[in-house]
């Protein structure tokens, strides 16, 4: 296939985007440095998008940008458009405070890492549901019925969970209760930031299966943010790879897993020898990712990259079309196949491409 280098503002747009993110950038120092560096991406209606990258790569900033919820005093720039089915598009960064409040739970809902910190320890779970419903002027008995169904969908006993205090539940139960809470106002989009990171491997996998069922039953669009590439490969339709606050590769999950075309993505895949292997067996990538105030010129990965050439040191690479809907921000993507061979190629099994769904 011929290489096409795209222009800087090209986006791997989708057919039916429910959210469009254009040139989203976050700064804490008036533009001296960026902790989200001009990212553009579509979220396709009904898809599960996995956002993957090392710790500190800007994944959470991307997630909070979707909801204009970047932690203060960060400044978010760019354009975020939410496109509800059959309704007028909404310019998220233009919303008034109360409009944003309802968008946040009723249209796009977010689950953060560590359910422990999300529940108030002095209130039973039922009160959390009731207060969320009341705060959004929703019918409480109807909402509690929905909560019960959601809890059941998540393989929990509704009555027991609703009547418990957070500390009476295990980490896995709390996390599932939090997912139910985030869906009680029937949002279209669910954004999850490392939702299973604190849980053991078995619980992580089982929550993933449940999420996949929920996605189908409620026709949800999901964003699943994680540093655990194999985990998200089992769930996501598409994957977006972040490095140093930028989006460096995007494509369908199978394409990324089998045909990654950025040396960083390939190193990330190699850092887990087998996609079925537990995270504890990951081999770290040599070198360190840069701090926002210390961004290298050109491609931010060049100090760690075996393929780096002069142009990588001076110019930020645009996306190159690797395949339809698969882009890689690397000048040397073709060489990366030989120069950074994938170590697990023969052991892919059935983990990629959302096959477990
Ligand atoms: N409130 C803040 N003020 C200034 N910088 C911040 C703030 N919160 C995060 N950052 C910086 O923004 C950058 C991106 O952070 P972000 O939390 O998005 O990374 P991440 O990829 O989600 O990491 P992790 O997986 O560890 O959560 C990091 O360099 C971090 O230090």
Q: Would you write up a description of this structure?
A:
This protein has 12 helices and 12 strands. By secondary structure, the chain is α/β, with parallel strands linked by helices. It has a domain at 14-85 and 226-357: Rossmann fold (3-Layer(aba) Sandwich). Strands 6-7-8-3-9-10-12-11 form an 8-stranded mixed beta sheet, sandwiched between helices. Strands 2-1-4-5 form a 4-stranded antiparallel beta sheet. A hairpin with a 2-residue loop joins strand 9 (238-243) and strand 10 (246-252). Helix 3 (125-135) crosses helix 4 (140-153). The longest helix has 18 residues, at 201-218. The chain binds adenosine-5'-triphosphate.
Strand content: 15-25%
Distance between the termini: 30 Å
Number of discrete helical segments: 12
Structural class: alpha/beta
**CATH-defined superfamily of the domain at 14-85 and 226-357:** P-loop containing nucleotide triphosphate hydrolases
| Share in helix | 25-40%
- The tally of strands reads 12
Shape: globular
Subcellular location: Cell membrane
Main location: membrane
GO molecular function: ATP binding; ATP hydrolysis activity
Membrane topology: Peripheral membrane protein
Brief description of this entry?
Keywords: ATP-binding, Cell membrane, Membrane, Nucleotide-binding, Plasmid, Transport. By secondary structure, this protein is of the alpha/beta class.
């Amino acid at each position: 296939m011929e290489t096409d280098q795209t222009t800087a503002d090209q986006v791997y747009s989708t057919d039916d985007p429910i959210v469009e993110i254009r040139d989203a950038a976050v700064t804490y120092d008036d533009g001296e440095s960026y902790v989200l560096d001009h990212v553009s991406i579509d979220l396709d209606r009904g898809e599960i998008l996995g956002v993957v990258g090392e710790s500190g790569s800007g994944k959470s900033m991307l997630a909070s940008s979707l909801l204009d919820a970047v932690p203060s005093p960060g400044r978010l720039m760019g354009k975020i458009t939410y496109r509800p089915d059959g309704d007028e598009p909404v310019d998220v960064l233009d919303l008034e405070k109360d409009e944003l409040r309802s968008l946040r739970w009723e249209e796009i809902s977010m689950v953060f890492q560590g359910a422990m910190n999300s529940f108030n320890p002095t209130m039973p779970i039922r009160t959390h549901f009731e207060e969320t419903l009341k705060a959004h002027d929703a019918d409480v008995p109807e909402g509690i019925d929905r909560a019960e169904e959601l809890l059941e969908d998540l393989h929990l006993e509704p009555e027991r969970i609703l009547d418990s205090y957070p500390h009476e539940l295990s980490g896995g139960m709390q996390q599932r209760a939090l997912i139910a809470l985030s869906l009680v106002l029937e949002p279209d989009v669910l954004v999850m930031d490392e939702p299973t990171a604190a849980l053991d491997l078995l619980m992580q996998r089982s929550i993933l299966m449940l999420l996949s069922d929920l996605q189908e039953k409620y026709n949800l669009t999901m964003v699943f943010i994680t540093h655990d590439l194999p985990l998200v490969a089992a769930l996501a339709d598409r994957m977006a790879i972040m490095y140093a606050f930028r989006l460096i590769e995007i494509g369908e999950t199978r394409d990324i897993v089998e045909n990654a075309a950025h040396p960083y993505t390939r190193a990330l895949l190699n850092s887990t020898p087998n996609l079925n292997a537990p995270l504890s067996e990951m081999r770290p990538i040599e070198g360190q990712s840069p701090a926002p105030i210390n961004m290298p010129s050109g491609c931010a990965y060049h100090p760690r990259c075996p393929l780096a050439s002069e142009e990588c040191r001076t110019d930020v690479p645009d996306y190159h079309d690797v395949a339809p809907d698969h882009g890689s921000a690397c000048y040397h993507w073709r060489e990366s196949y030989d120069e950074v061979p994938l170590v697990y190629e023969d052991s892919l099994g059935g983990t990629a491409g959302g096959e477990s769904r």
